[in-house]
Amino acid sequence: MRDSPEQVYALADEIRQRCLGQLDSLLSPGTHVWAAAAADELIVHFVNAPDLGSKTFLEKLQTQLADVSPQAIRLMAELAVIYELTPVNVGVPAKRRMVEGILAFAGTTGPLPDRVLEAFTGGVANPGTWYMTRPDVQLTFLIRCVVALTALTDDERTAVTSDPWMFRDLLGSVPLNSGYNQRAALLHLMFPDTFESIVASLDKGRILDFYAERLAARSGDDDRDMLLLRDALADGQGEPIHFYRPPWDGWRTTKTTTRGWLVRGAKVHGVDLIPQWLDDGYCSVAFPDVPSIPAGTSHAKIAEVVAAALPDVSTQERRSKTGTLDRFLNRIKVGHVVVTVHGADVFAGRIAGAAEWGESSDALSNRRRPVTWLNAGRPIARADLSAGAQGKLSGQNVVSDLGLYADEILALATVEEAAGAGQVEEPTSALTAPVALELPDPTKAFADGLFLPLDWLREVIDLLREKGQVVLYGPPGTGKTFIAQALATFLTETAGGEQRLVQFHPSYAYEDFFEGFRPRPGETQGSLVFDLVPGPLRRMAALADADPTRPYVLVIDELNRANLAKVFGELYFLLEYRNRAVGLQYSPDEDFSLPRNLLVIGTMNTADRSIALVDQAMRRRFDFVPLFPGQAPLKAMLRDWLAANAIPATAADLLDALNSMLGDPESAVGPSYFMSERSRTSAGLQRIWRTAIIPLLEERFAGNGVDVHATYALASLLSQLKGGTGGSTPASSASVGPVLEEGKALSSSDARIPAADQI
């Protein structure tokens, strides 16, 4: 279970014994920081006085703690240490800023102890968006833990902090208030040999379901069952078990069994129906001009009824209403989760029966589904949801699928229901935003295989983590497409998932890329029908949505050859706002969002169209990574490749000389033309020059009156290299490799001859 660096667990163990057990200070040993009075101050000024403004967390915290004692500030700083021990995806500088920033409120300056900084180099889990964006919620839970600990006698506290199950019982008595991830993380940190490093409690249930056959029986206690499962799986294994890494992560490919739907009722023809829904236990859709349609009616029949009732509305609007009715009457099943939004409040329940028809005075709620509302008296704050869940609730359709976020909202609603009943110590389940995508770091072997710097590859993968889409741009022959595909292969082979390449061209359109209608023969001879067919982006999005923990990579080659606004359409918006949903051009009754684990790597040829012509909307949505000959990361690529393959450096010298003559980085020639066995012999170099380089230059100088064959003749460049003359000769000419006789390969003795003698 100890899957993280030992310094993390060493500090966590010190916190358990010193702070939780003895109420002594972590950062100033011998100081009575962990005191009931200090915790009470934090309850009054922080927990009970939330700041919902737009400033940073530290800025708001400084205002909240302006009137508390230095002792309370130091306690908050030490609780922040616990908070920062969890994430593996946060660097030392950010963790340090949090803790040292809090200490500064009390006038304490200077670096943190080395043992703390060493522990900050690691972590125990990727706790997800909720944990990282709501430190106030996690710290609130930790403050309440201090209140519970300081209420115990010394003997009771010693016992509780020495026994993992007693400790869990104590945390179960602490009001949760959405601190689910922090509680799970704290259990693992304090007792790593008993509790898993899994901060999303729903994941434990999914793991146990997946490996059910390895357990004789389930006790109903996920923590105890996970302990038994680990013992069962570890039998005969020579390596640690990590449930988020192959081969133990098969459970992550299984889809959630929770199906959820958003049904809007706050503004139905200007009327707010939600209070009535909550009081009477139902939800509804209106369409007062459409007559009763029984549940089970086919989509085609619903379309006929809608067309007959609404002959004057557009085809697109009829299609939208038909889809809404089909979802409400047929696709929503008994037991599914139903969610509705009322201003800043979110309510969730379970569908309790089939669709019913009942006359209502305003004809706005005739079509109903009975609902058992879970949190009618205790709504979820919309702001407490993950960014992805909030995005799902922002769609425009009356009825829309919540996808993977149904679990998250159901968990919160269930906890709110338990809180209302005074049972917060053991909620039915814990909040889990969908598991965050974890992209692997590039390896040295991967970098060496590409002849690229490891740091450059790290940066590109970091850009994909941050934005989700990058463009590799540069002149021909710089390996843009090869590198893009290699990155896609590395990510998907290491972490799972899939990749696909598409190539843009001037006639490429939205209907090719995302979805469009395609004809096929009809049932009667000579007739045609049109089917809505998904394109590569839509298909990849569906795969990614069903498997959110693995990367799905779409490589778009020659990105700038198409009319990008025409190809992307409304998807432009989603590239920038992955957590939002939009209606679609050909599927207006569906709210669509781009999964965060769908990554896009584009390539752009600057010789074909300058990057300067790309519009600002495109620039804002992609990170652009240059690939130019003679500049990092390509500067040494060809020479390194030639050396690794025991080929003379002549080709690299020729390329340097040629690009120096060309003088334009966007029109420079890339190294990939020479990265072949042809570069080993003079005949091979001549063939490369005749069949690849000269045609490229002819296109480059077409209409400019340049005699390409004379100006850029291979013999001329070789002569310049041999004599070391000419302003165009590169600085590296003093170490030019051998120019071979026709068909002759370089021998090991030739390789030791000084360059000047070899030419």
Automatic annotation (TrEMBL):
**Which residues lie in coiled coils?**
none
Domain AAA+ ATPase residues, every copy = 466-628
| Any GO molecular function | ATP binding
* Gene3D superfamilies to which the protein is assigned, alphabetical: P-loop containing nucleotide triphosphate hydrolases
Q: Mind telling me which SMART domains this protein's record contains?
A: AAA
**InterPro entries in UniProt:** AAA+_ATPase, ATPase_dyneun-rel_AAA, Methyl-DNA_Rec/Restrict_Enz, P-loop_NTPase
Protein name, please? 5-methylcytosine-specific restriction enzyme B
